[in-house]
Design goal:
single chain; Rossmann fold; 6-stranded mixed sheet; 4-stranded parallel sheet; 23 helices; binds iron/sulfur cluster
Length: 603
Amino acid sequence: MSPAQDHPPAVPPTGRAGATADQAPRALTTDPVATGDAPQVVVVDEAVLTLDLSAPTEALALPDTLVPADQGALIDRLISSYPPKVARKRRRHFQVNEPGAPAPIGANERTVPGIITQRGCCYAGCKGVVLGPITDIVHIVHGPIGCSYYAWMTRRNQARPPEGVANYLQYAFSTDLTEDEIIFGGEKKLAAAIREAHALFHPKAIAVFSTCPVGLIGDDVHAVSRQLRKELGINIFGFSCEGYKGVSQSAGHHIANNGLFTHVVGTEEPDAEPDPTRFRINVLGEYNIGGDAFEIERILERCGIDLVATFSGNTNYGDIARSHTADLNVVMCHRSINYLAEMMETRYGIPWTKVNFIGAEATAKSLRKIARYFGDQALIARVETVIGEELEAIAAERAEIRSRCEGKLAMLYVGGSRAHHYQELFRDIGMPTISAGYEFAHRDDYEGREVIPSIKVDADSRNIEELDVVADPLAYHPRRSPEQLDALARSGLQTRDYVGMMREMAPSALVVDDISHHEMEVLIREYSPAVVCSGIKDKYVIEKMGVPCKQLHNYDYGGPYAGFVGARNFYREIDRLVSANVWKYVTPPWAGESLGAFASGAA
Ligand code: SF4
């Protein structure tokens, strides 16, 4: 069906959807969701209605005794082993944090050759992160078989497809390019692979992902996709996400957003008109690692909030095709999906707000944001009931674990949102974050979206297409008027905003972008953290230093860590890691060797 197909607004701009803070509901209300046939009177705490949900969460202060007096001098020592030109380049990627006024940090810039980075490639961001978890699309990797190694569920995206919806996540589809195709071209092999996949699986859609060699030999995956779409009569679309594009996997996220928006979002209408009395949202930037999305779904269901689509954990093609009918987009991973949130607001009139379901307190705040947006008294009351019950259920264990963990230091170097989100979980159990940074984030993920106009667009970023999006003449209807959004902002609910990581980190904490192995080793020696959260590429280096590492790309074998149950799982995991005695028995293979100037602080 066409995205332009007319359908009545799911939420009219006035009435239920029009309730704003200026018309803020107060005190007593009824809650039909909670009670089914017999609504009960429940009480909304007045203080909840006036909470400033846009204000940055204050970080735990760092103990004076554990922070080097001069963090700036530490940075100088760190980079002093690099050649002068490299040192100058790397210096921009460090900042000593000032949460009230974050200083500009270097981000989304090419890693200096020779430095061992933790970043992934553009294809990994497009296929591996954003598109790959969609269960019923056949994802064909057009390239040598090596590129498909990480296409085979290593991210641990989980799914429970509804009855009748296919799940191809257990498969890895590749065209397995060899020398012949590199010399003579791989388009015929790609067309054959698409036909074969169609004949075997009869999927609703097929996506094709370009790897480095495909870009180098000039195969046109878009032309092949168009041709096969006509021939087979299903949606087939390609991605020019060659690994070398951009500076990291971040480029692949943007390309994936563009492709989903162009080829999938708004291409189907629901069988029945959405019920205007329901609260319908999409969750963007949640990939269901270790079952996180299952826990978020459980909580939303308890609150009486309907999930139209998740981009893209535990989700399917149809959910995303119909996602333009939701009334609010909530954004988890800002870096990987903010493009889609912006484009859906422009074309369909769906506002977005930033949330974080990592951490019990953060989850409570996020649920309150959703309830405040809809402005419905019964929903606000119901959300408070759920928050109260869920926090109560984990309170005793959290307090007990906090008594063992309080004051121990954490370091986090991962992703484009996780290094921020997981600070909330550590905060829940009293562990301050001494240093953190992202692998592939941009300046706005550190400093907040207000800096976007000042970000210099370099050649690598210009390489990624910016779609020219306008309001759809038929499908656009604003769920909130500009005046209503202003009123919401005044009431403490900001839409289209992200404060960034630095405003929610402690003063004097060290922010490091695209950290190298060398820098991480020095910082671990300097800070002696109780735990480091990072990725698979550096996990075992850290553990050989006698420091536990919690891997936050795919959670090792753990999770979920989202929501209230997930928070409790994480508290237990961290307690187990930081309380274990085993780490002091580790003798690093390099024991006795010096890191030179860094270990002694002499440089
Ligand atoms: S960098 Fe290129 S060759 Fe390597 S995995 Fe990514 S797409 Fe494949």
